[in-house]
């Protein structure tokens, strides 16, 4: 029997008024969205984008998933990463500063490049200020298809994170939690909070062979009233 995909997700609201992160999944595809802003409109944008992205059949490719998210979000905005299974691994699409990592049981390898002002200036050999890390250059509502980030990996285990996780934990710290924690998704968001994260922190851990037949639930996160 083929090994089946297992997944865990966890989220921590931090010091925000609402949790504007969302994770959705369908047919082996998983998407993580991070709303831009700290209100219910941002949270709704993230949930709509994640749901729309995973509703696209994996055969359509991640660019089609990002385009579906763009069509679905008409108010507010968010950043998004989507991982679609195929026979050789996963195809990844993203906009903004959410991330996907390949996990081989020992080390993490980042698959995405942040679409931020800070990364733009780094790529051009310029100095970066802390504020630039939080200014995204692409988003679900603003990015044309020519600006989508697209890649693929033969890895069968992935980590998806919002910036409330990866801005506060090093790759080595995240890898240690993936190796050692009984529930690594929960351990990652808890560790980010202990490291000082005030932002929403969300992680999704996918392990095992991706299967288009695997039924996975949608995971909206509760928001404050």
From TrEMBL:
Residues 6-208 form the PPM-type phosphatase domain. SUPFAM superfamilies: PP2C-like. PROSITE patterns: PPM_2 (PS51746). InterPro entries: PPM-type-like_dom_sf, PPM-type_phosphatase-like_dom. This is Protein phosphatase.
